[in-house]
């Protein structure tokens, strides 16, 4: 569930991200009523099994919603709630309505599962985990941008396509579209320091971003957030998404 908004005296407009249909707005009749018989499970960050039927215009009708995969521990962490909420805002801003994006759906599931494990780690997870919340968000953001055709380039200059030698540090800019070589950098303002070459080499495999240091994950997350905000504004969002 991405968002709910009250409608009328007892209804809700529910925006969901579904595996089969992508972003779907639906009306949940009497969802705010206190009648237990009509109660729907519409909590964020759990995976829901929903039944939808055709409604009027663009709105589907939400007939039922139950929790399929519960993530109760995630709800106990303010930082993880913020991370999950940020990912949902990104999807709502960039994903076109009613277009299936199974790769993005799988990436969101992986992010939320990871945040759940971080909040209540098992013995194995506590021993082997070398991830950060920022790193998990970077992985999700990069995959979202890649799938939707807005990917950031790390192996070559995004402006002139000059390959970046392995191990060479470089500046990364959302405005520039990724790595920007020294020749192209004067036309791309950036306040960030260059990222080490080893970090940029890691990013050839997006999942490696989850194990970046807190400093480098935070620096890269700022670039990812800027890139998503720019794309959101480019496709019509007046407020962007931060």
Describe the 3D structure:
- This protein is an alpha+beta fold.
- It has two domains: 3-69, OB fold (Dihydrolipoamide Acetyltransferase, E2P) (Beta Barrel), CATH 2.40.50.140; 74-234, Recombination protein O, C-terminal domain (de novo design (two linked rop proteins)), CATH 1.20.1440.120.
- It is built from six helices and eight strands.
- The strands form two sheets. The protein has a five-stranded mixed β-sheet. It has a two-stranded antiparallel sheet with strand order 6-7.
- The longest helix is centred in the last third of the chain and has 21 residues, at 214-234.
- It is elongated and about 60 Å long.
- Mean pLDDT is 89; it is low at 123-129.
Number of domains: 2
Q: Mean pLDDT, rounded to whole units?
A: 89
Distance between the termini: 19 Å
What is the SS-derived class? alpha+beta
**Structure annotation, total helices:** 6
The name of the CATH architecture of the largest domain is Up-down Bundle
- Note the quaternary state here: single chain
Secondary structure: number of strands: 8
User: What is the overall silhouette?
Assistant: elongated
Strand content: 15-25%
CATH superfamily of the largest domain: Recombination protein O, C-terminal domain
The CATH class of the largest domain, by name, is Mainly Alpha
- Low-pLDDT segments, ≥5 res: 123-129
Q: Describe the main β-sheet briefly.
A: 5 strands, mixed
Question: If you consult CATH, what is the topology of the largest domain?
Answer: de novo design (two linked rop proteins)
Describe the strand arrangement of the main beta sheet, using strand numbers: 1-2-3-5-4
Radius of gyration: 20 Å
